[in-house]
Amino acid sequence: MSEQPSSDPEDGGAKAGGGDRGGPWRRASTVLLAAVALLPLAVAGIRLWSARDDAQVRTRAELARAADAAAEYAGRVLDTHRIMVMRLDDTLHGITDAEIRAREEALHQKTRALLAQHPGLSGFVHGRDGRLLLATNLYPVPPNLDLSDREFSQALRQADPPETHVSRIYRGRAVGQTFFAVSRRRTETGSGLPPTEYDGLVNVSVYPRDLAAGLTQLTRDEGDVLTLVRSDGEILARSTGLDAPLPPIPPERPIVAAMRRGDARIEAETDGSIAAARRVAGWPVYAVTSRPRGAIRAQWLASIAWEVPISLLASALLCLLARTIHRQQQRLRRANLDLEARVEWRTRELATSEERLLLAQDAGGIGSWEIEPQNLRMLASASQLRLYGLPEDAFPDGLGWEAWLAMLHPEDRDRAAARRRAALDSRATYSDEFRIRRADTGEERVILARARWIRRQGAAGERFIGISIDVTERKAAEQEIAGREAEFRAIFENSAIGNIQCDAASLRLTRANACFRDVIGAAAGEPLTGLSLLDIVYEDDRARWEPAFRATLAGGQPYQGEVRFRRRDGAIRWACITASLVPQAGRQKARLIAAVQDVTDRHLAEERQMLLAREVDHRSKNALAVVQAALRLTTKDDAQAFAAAISGRVGALARAQTLLAQGRWTGADLRTLVEAELAGFINLESGPRIGIAGPPLTVSAEAAQPISMVLHELATNAVKYGALSVAEGAVSIAWRLDGAADQLLFDWVETGGPAIAGAPRRAGFGSRLLKATLRQLGGSLSLDWRPAGLACTLDLPLSRIVQRDGPEPEPEDAIALDQATQREPV
């Protein structure tokens, strides 16, 4: 139990001096002492209440995450079982119930091998009458084991059955294990029934004990319980284990009502616990995680005693470690018992292998025959005669050599006869493939014949005994596969996109086309078979890319994504990788097929486009902010003057924007900027009223607009009051660079205008705007009111106005301009 902090206040009160004990001072002291005494309790109460709320919120979040993870885990498990059910059904296509019973041993081996890639799975086949026909974990199946009363059997017999059914929990009648089943109707059974008719089912058992191990790993707290529940309340599995079926959750519970409605996310509370449920995608199953309120209360109390969680965490980790070791020992013991059982079964199997071989030949339609060496007559079994299209009672005394040759294809006749004659003469083992024409239909079939000389026990002499198998379909399939392989090889090698094949486990390349060599810059003869796909991926991206890549493929989904890679010449490029996993088939390992395309040019184009968009956005904001400042600062006493002033200043900004856009926002030529600004006031080509001189200089995008505003104000003043207001006036504009002092000196000199008596008595708005605009660039303004005209010198730091690399500042120019002009005296 957590130790509760003491809330007894210290006795720090002092008796008030003077006055009687019933006076106001005494009552105030009492109230103050009481408040001081209750303050720690109040603080503790607030802390307890806050910690309680935090524990509730944290619990709901943890339960939701655990439910999400459990739903994803259960979805993968159920999807795997559904796939195995479908593969079992595909394996049994065209095979009737009677044939399954007759070929039980062969089909048991085949289906057991099919499920061997997923240890722990057990598959079952049920006949139309509900009796068990085949089991992958049991051979032979108990005769007449009727399972028609099972829920999955009744559900799939309905007129409108579900495509895939998840049953309630059962205890197996044959093996005794607790399980629930993922079931589907059998299809294309070969019985001739319509597709809508029920003709048995195939299911795969899901063992709650196996699910419990995975669910336990997903629990967030030792007291949490993860449960898989069907949408009608049936309990399928629990993280705490499930050795026997449990009663379903009562339908009156709100969580069951929500699951019946199909809600994807459910939160529920009871007097004893808090729960979160998530629907498993594609299944009528929910993952429910719950936590007892006692555990939540313990977390709440632990949160206010910081020293306790350390010991609790260590204890929990030790308990978890011990529990994990115990489970590992249990799994090892079960594996040993299973291995011993399989060894014992295999021993019995080997003891009766010869008898089973004969039964398998008969069940598989394999013809057997024997040739008498002295007269070459063939004694054929009934199945052998059926292969040749002959009635079973034909040739009761044996098939003669000439009669056998007559049934062979003319093109194969001489070669087949020579091979069989050579085997008879040399006493060698015989194997051959040849074509025949069936006696009943004339159909051409391919026969595989094998034979050897044996001496039968108790019989005199040797016998040439063999078997015949119709391999027509297999040969056709081999030819089709060969054609597909040739087609794939042509597409793979000649594709305009880089194609590779890799080992799924190590990601090492086993095959690559010429386009892939071009993508990574490999020479035509350079070997790539020992290279891993990870060796190509850029080193800084491997740790991020590989887990996502493997997780996507492990989930059964194709991968498509982009990652950087290093070419053989060391260049870093971008590649789009599209990959699919080809599962293991027989002895062939799982393979990875991927297309690799260099998309660096697209990435660069996207980056340039994004950079330009950000630059345009920045400049637009800056221009709008400056316009807003001009609107706010321009005198509004005269509407026409206000409109003219705003129009001129906005025009100056527009002209600067145009020059910057023409220069792709990298800067503007100073002479072009001056000419563009003055062109709005006077025709520069009409006469020598304007003189412009100065070295070439590109000003930065940040400085272009303020300089345009300064030129606009100077030109406006000259047109209204100065040299440009009369025909004889002229303006001389010149600039020079002082690199040592990091200065640009810009001179504006007016001559020939109206005579000036001296500097104005007070500074107008234009002067304040000029000074404020130059101040934001770190410059200064010098005005000389000469009688012949105004002489203005701008002193600007080169480091602030010349074009430079790096990001532009945010558009604060108008704010600085506004504040600077407001500080100027009127």
Automatic annotation (TrEMBL):
Q: Does the keyword Flavoprotein apply?
A: yes
Q: What class of enzyme is it?
A: transferase
- Residue ranges constituting the PAC domain according to the UniProt record: 430-483, 559-611
For the region Disordered, give the residue spans: 1-23, 802-826
Q: What is the lineage of its organism?
A: Bacteria, Pseudomonadati, Pseudomonadota, Alphaproteobacteria, Acetobacterales
Q: Which PANTHER family match?
A: ETHYLENE RESPONSE SENSOR PROTEIN, TWO-COMPONENT SYSTEM SENSOR PROTEIN
Kindly indicate whether the keyword Nucleus belongs to this entry. Answer: no
Q: Name the SUPFAM superfamilies for this protein.
A: ATPase domain of HSP90 chaperone/DNA topoisomerase II/histidine kinase, PYP-like sensor domain (PAS domain)
Say which domain of life the source belongs to. Bacteria
Q: Which InterPro entries match?
A: HATPase_C_sf (IPR036890), PAC (IPR001610), PAS (IPR000014), PAS-assoc_C (IPR000700), PAS-like_dom_sf (IPR035965), PAS_fold_3 (IPR013655), Sig_transdc_His_kinase_HWE (IPR011102)
Q: Which Pfam families match?
A: HWE_HK, PAS_3
Checking Gene3D superfamilies in the record gives:
2.10.70.100, Histidine kinase-like ATPase, C-terminal domain (3.30.565.10), PAS domain (3.30.450.20)
Report TM segments. 31-50, 300-325
Q: Which reaction does it catalyse?
A: ATP + protein L-histidine = ADP + protein N-phospho-L-histidine
- Keywords from the named record: ATP-binding, Chromophore, Flavoprotein, FMN, Kinase, Membrane, Nucleotide-binding, Phosphoprotein, Photoreceptor protein, Receptor, Repeat, Sensory transduction, Transferase, Transmembrane, Transmembrane helix, Virulence
Protein's recorded name: histidine kinase
User: Under which EC number(s) is this enzyme classified?
Assistant: 2.7.13.3
